From TrEMBL:
This is 4'-phosphopantetheinyl transferase superfamily protein. GO terms for cellular component: cytosol. Its cofactor is Mg(2+). Residues 147-226 form the 4'-phosphopantetheinyl transferase domain. Residues 41-126 form the 4'-phosphopantetheinyl transferase N-terminal domain. GO terms for molecular function: holo-[acyl-carrier-protein] synthase activity; magnesium ion binding. Keywords: Magnesium, Metal-binding, Transferase. It comes from Shewanella aestuarii. Gene3D superfamilies: 4'-phosphopantetheinyl transferase domain (3.90.470.20). The keyword Transferase applies. Belongs to the P-Pant transferase superfamily. Gsp/Sfp/HetI/AcpT family. InterPro entries: 4-PPantetheinyl_Trfase_dom (IPR008278), 4-PPantetheinyl_Trfase_dom_sf (IPR037143), AASDHPPT_N (IPR055066), P-Pant_transferase_sf (IPR050559), Ppantetheine-prot_Trfase_dom (IPR004568). GO terms for biological process: fatty acid biosynthetic process; lysine biosynthetic process via aminoadipic acid.
Protein backbone atom coordinates (compact mmCIF):
# COMPACT_ATOMS: atom_id res chain seq x y z
CA UNK A 1 0.00 0.00 0.00
CA UNK A 2 1.52 3.34 -1.03
CA UNK A 3 0.48 6.91 -1.63
CA UNK A 4 0.51 8.28 -5.12
CA UNK A 5 2.60 11.39 -5.70
CA UNK A 6 -0.55 13.43 -6.25
CA UNK A 7 -2.10 12.26 -2.99
CA UNK A 8 1.09 12.95 -1.05
CA UNK A 9 1.29 16.41 -2.61
CA UNK A 10 -2.35 17.09 -1.72
CA UNK A 11 -1.69 16.21 1.92
CA UNK A 12 1.60 18.10 2.06
CA UNK A 13 -0.29 21.28 1.29
CA UNK A 14 -2.44 20.96 4.41
CA UNK A 15 -0.11 23.11 6.49
CA UNK A 16 -1.87 26.29 7.52
CA UNK A 17 -5.02 24.91 9.15
CA UNK A 18 -5.76 21.68 10.97
CA UNK A 19 -9.15 20.51 12.22
CA UNK A 20 -9.36 17.67 14.73
CA UNK A 21 -12.20 15.17 14.75
CA UNK A 22 -13.55 13.99 18.09
CA UNK A 23 -15.73 10.90 18.38
CA UNK A 24 -17.80 9.92 21.41
CA UNK A 25 -18.88 6.28 21.42
CA UNK A 26 -21.13 4.81 24.14
CA UNK A 27 -19.76 1.61 25.63
CA UNK A 28 -22.76 -0.64 26.12
CA UNK A 29 -23.46 -4.09 27.49
CA UNK A 30 -23.39 -6.72 24.75
CA UNK A 31 -25.18 -10.02 24.44
CA UNK A 32 -22.96 -13.10 24.35
CA UNK A 33 -23.80 -13.52 20.67
CA UNK A 34 -22.89 -9.91 19.83
CA UNK A 35 -19.62 -10.12 21.77
CA UNK A 36 -18.69 -13.35 19.97
CA UNK A 37 -19.60 -11.92 16.56
CA UNK A 38 -17.55 -8.76 17.05
CA UNK A 39 -14.61 -10.68 18.51
CA UNK A 40 -14.64 -12.91 15.43
CA UNK A 41 -14.52 -10.03 12.95
CA UNK A 42 -10.82 -10.79 12.69
CA UNK A 43 -9.73 -7.19 13.21
CA UNK A 44 -7.63 -7.60 16.34
CA UNK A 45 -4.12 -8.97 16.74
CA UNK A 46 -3.74 -11.99 19.02
CA UNK A 47 -2.18 -9.90 21.78
CA UNK A 48 -5.14 -7.49 21.61
CA UNK A 49 -7.58 -10.37 21.96
CA UNK A 50 -5.67 -11.65 24.98
CA UNK A 51 -5.81 -8.20 26.58
CA UNK A 52 -9.58 -8.12 26.06
CA UNK A 53 -10.07 -11.59 27.53
CA UNK A 54 -7.74 -10.85 30.45
CA UNK A 55 -10.54 -8.93 32.17
CA UNK A 56 -12.49 -11.14 34.55
CA UNK A 57 -15.84 -9.38 34.36
CA UNK A 58 -17.85 -9.88 31.15
CA UNK A 59 -18.83 -6.19 31.00
CA UNK A 60 -15.17 -5.15 31.23
CA UNK A 61 -14.34 -7.52 28.36
CA UNK A 62 -17.20 -6.10 26.31
CA UNK A 63 -16.05 -2.51 26.82
CA UNK A 64 -12.42 -3.37 26.07
CA UNK A 65 -13.47 -5.00 22.80
CA UNK A 66 -15.60 -2.01 21.81
CA UNK A 67 -12.71 0.40 22.51
CA UNK A 68 -10.35 -1.48 20.19
CA UNK A 69 -12.90 -1.97 17.42
CA UNK A 70 -14.06 1.65 17.58
CA UNK A 71 -10.52 2.99 17.27
CA UNK A 72 -9.83 0.86 14.21
CA UNK A 73 -13.06 1.73 12.42
CA UNK A 74 -12.68 5.45 13.20
CA UNK A 75 -9.17 5.43 11.74
CA UNK A 76 -10.49 3.69 8.63
CA UNK A 77 -13.27 6.24 8.24
CA UNK A 78 -10.70 9.03 8.56
CA UNK A 79 -8.46 7.37 5.98
CA UNK A 80 -11.41 7.28 3.58
CA UNK A 81 -11.88 11.01 4.11
CA UNK A 82 -8.23 11.41 3.05
CA UNK A 83 -8.84 9.46 -0.17
CA UNK A 84 -7.21 6.32 1.20
CA UNK A 85 -8.80 2.95 1.84
CA UNK A 86 -7.30 1.19 4.83
CA UNK A 87 -9.28 -1.65 6.36
CA UNK A 88 -9.82 -1.73 10.14
CA UNK A 89 -7.87 -4.98 10.48
CA UNK A 90 -4.82 -3.54 8.68
CA UNK A 91 -3.86 -0.82 11.16
CA UNK A 92 -0.63 -1.35 13.07
CA UNK A 93 0.26 0.39 16.31
CA UNK A 94 3.28 1.09 18.45
CA UNK A 95 3.69 2.35 22.00
CA UNK A 96 5.98 5.00 23.44
CA UNK A 97 8.12 4.44 26.52
CA UNK A 98 5.31 5.52 28.88
CA UNK A 99 2.66 3.58 26.97
CA UNK A 100 1.17 6.24 24.68
CA UNK A 101 -0.28 4.46 21.63
CA UNK A 102 0.23 5.73 18.11
CA UNK A 103 0.17 4.42 14.59
CA UNK A 104 3.28 2.58 13.51
CA UNK A 105 5.78 4.84 11.76
CA UNK A 106 4.88 3.34 8.37
CA UNK A 107 1.16 4.00 8.82
CA UNK A 108 1.76 7.47 10.22
CA UNK A 109 3.77 8.36 7.14
CA UNK A 110 1.20 6.81 4.80
CA UNK A 111 -1.82 8.47 6.36
CA UNK A 112 -0.64 11.52 8.29
CA UNK A 113 -3.05 10.51 11.06
CA UNK A 114 -2.46 11.17 14.75
CA UNK A 115 -4.86 9.90 17.41
CA UNK A 116 -5.44 9.66 21.12
CA UNK A 117 -8.20 7.99 23.09
CA UNK A 118 -9.71 7.91 26.55
CA UNK A 119 -12.54 6.00 28.17
CA UNK A 120 -14.35 6.48 31.45
CA UNK A 121 -17.47 4.78 32.68
CA UNK A 122 -19.79 4.24 29.74
CA UNK A 123 -18.05 6.47 27.16
CA UNK A 124 -15.10 6.31 24.81
CA UNK A 125 -13.51 9.47 23.39
CA UNK A 126 -11.27 9.31 20.32
CA UNK A 127 -9.46 12.35 18.95
CA UNK A 128 -8.00 12.22 15.42
CA UNK A 129 -5.97 14.80 13.54
CA UNK A 130 -4.80 14.53 9.94
CA UNK A 131 -1.58 16.21 8.86
CA UNK A 132 1.22 15.16 6.58
CA UNK A 133 3.43 18.04 7.63
CA UNK A 134 4.26 17.19 11.23
CA UNK A 135 5.73 13.70 10.95
CA UNK A 136 8.96 14.84 9.31
CA UNK A 137 10.86 15.48 12.54
CA UNK A 138 9.24 13.11 15.04
CA UNK A 139 11.82 13.70 17.77
CA UNK A 140 11.85 17.51 17.70
CA UNK A 141 9.44 18.92 20.27
CA UNK A 142 9.07 22.16 18.31
CA UNK A 143 7.84 20.27 15.23
CA UNK A 144 6.17 17.11 16.46
CA UNK A 145 2.40 17.22 16.53
CA UNK A 146 1.17 16.21 19.99
CA UNK A 147 -2.47 15.34 20.63
CA UNK A 148 -4.09 14.26 23.88
CA UNK A 149 -7.69 13.72 24.96
CA UNK A 150 -9.38 12.78 28.20
CA UNK A 151 -12.94 12.12 29.32
CA UNK A 152 -13.84 11.96 33.01
CA UNK A 153 -16.96 10.79 34.81
CA UNK A 154 -17.96 12.79 37.88
CA UNK A 155 -17.55 10.54 40.92
CA UNK A 156 -19.19 11.47 44.19
CA UNK A 157 -17.20 9.03 46.35
CA UNK A 158 -13.71 10.30 45.46
CA UNK A 159 -11.95 12.03 48.35
CA UNK A 160 -10.55 15.01 46.46
CA UNK A 161 -8.69 16.78 49.29
CA UNK A 162 -5.49 14.66 49.42
CA UNK A 163 -5.36 14.52 45.62
CA UNK A 164 -5.61 18.31 45.40
CA UNK A 165 -2.58 18.84 47.62
CA UNK A 166 -0.48 16.32 45.73
CA UNK A 167 -1.29 17.07 42.10
CA UNK A 168 -2.64 20.63 41.78
CA UNK A 169 -0.82 23.97 41.88
CA UNK A 170 -1.35 26.52 44.65
CA UNK A 171 -3.36 28.78 42.33
CA UNK A 172 -5.56 25.93 41.11
CA UNK A 173 -6.27 24.92 44.71
CA UNK A 174 -6.98 28.50 45.80
CA UNK A 175 -9.42 29.03 42.93
CA UNK A 176 -11.17 25.75 43.69
CA UNK A 177 -11.55 26.38 47.42
CA UNK A 178 -13.46 29.64 46.98
CA UNK A 179 -16.22 27.72 45.18
CA UNK A 180 -19.17 26.08 46.90
CA UNK A 181 -18.62 22.45 47.93
CA UNK A 182 -20.58 20.97 45.01
CA UNK A 183 -18.75 23.17 42.52
CA UNK A 184 -15.41 22.25 44.07
CA UNK A 185 -15.98 18.66 43.02
CA UNK A 186 -17.00 19.79 39.53
CA UNK A 187 -13.85 21.91 39.22
CA UNK A 188 -11.68 19.05 40.47
CA UNK A 189 -12.79 16.73 37.68
CA UNK A 190 -12.65 19.56 35.14
CA UNK A 191 -9.01 20.17 36.04
CA UNK A 192 -8.26 16.47 36.11
CA UNK A 193 -9.55 16.03 32.55
CA UNK A 194 -7.47 18.99 31.35
CA UNK A 195 -4.31 17.79 33.07
CA UNK A 196 -4.74 14.24 31.83
CA UNK A 197 -5.24 15.46 28.25
CA UNK A 198 -1.98 17.41 28.42
CA UNK A 199 0.20 14.64 29.86
CA UNK A 200 -1.31 12.24 27.32
CA UNK A 201 -0.42 14.68 24.55
CA UNK A 202 3.24 14.81 25.55
CA UNK A 203 3.26 11.07 26.25
CA UNK A 204 5.06 11.24 29.58
CA UNK A 205 2.28 10.13 31.91
CA UNK A 206 2.80 10.96 35.56
CA UNK A 207 6.53 11.29 34.92
CA UNK A 208 5.46 14.87 34.17
CA UNK A 209 4.24 16.10 37.58
CA UNK A 210 0.67 17.40 37.39
CA UNK A 211 1.68 20.26 39.67
CA UNK A 212 4.30 21.47 37.16
CA UNK A 213 1.68 23.16 34.97
CA UNK A 214 -1.66 24.81 35.58
CA UNK A 215 -5.03 25.54 34.03
CA UNK A 216 -6.82 28.67 35.25
CA UNK A 217 -10.43 29.53 34.50
CA UNK A 218 -10.79 33.19 33.48
CA UNK A 219 -12.31 35.16 36.38
CA UNK A 220 -12.69 31.74 38.02
CA UNK A 221 -15.75 31.09 35.88
CA UNK A 222 -17.65 27.86 36.46
CA UNK A 223 -18.51 25.56 33.58
CA UNK A 224 -22.23 24.83 33.27
CA UNK A 225 -22.65 21.65 35.30
CA UNK A 226 -26.29 21.24 34.28
CA UNK A 227 -25.51 20.69 30.59
CA UNK A 228 -27.74 17.89 29.33
CA UNK A 229 -26.13 17.68 25.89
CA UNK A 230 -22.67 18.17 24.47
CA UNK A 231 -21.30 21.69 24.79
CA UNK A 232 -17.84 23.27 24.36
CA UNK A 233 -16.67 26.12 26.57
CA UNK A 234 -16.02 29.40 24.84
CA UNK A 235 -12.47 30.09 23.69
CA UNK A 236 -10.48 32.14 26.19
CA UNK A 237 -12.25 30.76 29.24
CA UNK A 238 -9.27 28.59 30.17
CA UNK A 239 -5.69 29.85 30.45
CA UNK A 240 -2.96 27.23 30.20
CA UNK A 241 0.53 27.77 31.62
CA UNK A 242 2.60 24.81 30.34
CA UNK A 243 5.84 23.50 31.85
CA UNK A 244 9.31 23.55 30.35
CA UNK A 245 10.14 22.49 27.64
CA UNK A 246 6.59 22.64 26.25
CA UNK A 247 6.01 26.38 26.34
CA UNK A 248 4.92 26.71 22.73
CA UNK A 249 1.28 27.68 22.02
CA UNK A 250 -1.31 25.02 22.79
CA UNK A 251 -4.87 24.66 21.53
CA UNK A 252 -7.18 23.67 24.39
CA UNK A 253 -10.78 22.51 24.06
CA UNK A 254 -12.93 21.67 27.06
CA UNK A 255 -16.58 20.77 27.38
CA UNK A 256 -19.39 18.72 28.83
CA UNK A 257 -20.73 15.62 27.13
CA UNK A 258 -23.60 15.67 29.63
CA UNK A 259 -24.07 16.34 33.35
CA UNK A 260 -21.89 13.41 34.38
CA UNK A 261 -19.04 13.60 31.87
CA UNK A 262 -16.54 16.28 30.96
CA UNK A 263 -13.80 16.09 28.33
CA UNK A 264 -10.67 17.90 27.22
CA UNK A 265 -8.45 18.03 24.15
CA UNK A 266 -4.89 19.42 23.97
CA UNK A 267 -2.92 20.00 20.76
CA UNK A 268 0.35 21.83 20.37
CA UNK A 269 -0.12 24.44 17.68
CA UNK A 270 3.21 23.84 15.90
CA UNK A 271 3.08 25.93 12.71
CA UNK A 272 -0.61 25.53 12.00
CA UNK A 273 -3.86 27.11 13.10
CA UNK A 274 -6.11 24.64 14.90
CA UNK A 275 -9.81 24.89 14.15
CA UNK A 276 -12.64 24.02 16.51
CA UNK A 277 -13.06 20.23 16.35
CA UNK A 278 -15.77 18.44 14.43
CA UNK A 279 -17.58 16.34 17.03
CA UNK A 280 -19.43 13.12 16.30
CA UNK A 281 -21.46 11.09 18.78
CA UNK A 282 -22.13 7.63 17.38
CA UNK A 283 -22.73 4.05 18.43
CA UNK A 284 -20.17 1.45 17.44
CA UNK A 285 -22.83 -0.36 15.41
CA UNK A 286 -23.43 2.81 13.39
CA UNK A 287 -19.70 3.31 12.81
CA UNK A 288 -19.37 -0.27 11.63
CA UNK A 289 -22.27 0.17 9.21
CA UNK A 290 -20.71 3.35 7.79
CA UNK A 291 -17.48 1.50 7.13
CA UNK A 292 -19.08 -1.24 5.03
Amino acid sequence: MSLSNSTAKQHSELQTSLQPRVYFVPLTALSDAQFKAWLELGWLENDEIQKVLRYKLPLAQQKALQVRLALRVILSLQSQANSLAIRPQDWQFEYAEKGKPSLSHAFKVKTGLHFNLSHSGDWLMVGVLSSFTHVIEPHAISHELMLGVDIERLRSNTNIEPILKHYFTAQEIADLLVLTSDLQRERFFDLWALKEAFIKAIGKGLAQPLSSFRFLFTDNKVVNKEAQTLVLTEQGMINFIPPEPYQQPWHIEFGRLNKAYRFALCINCVSADIKTPIITESSLAHLLANNE
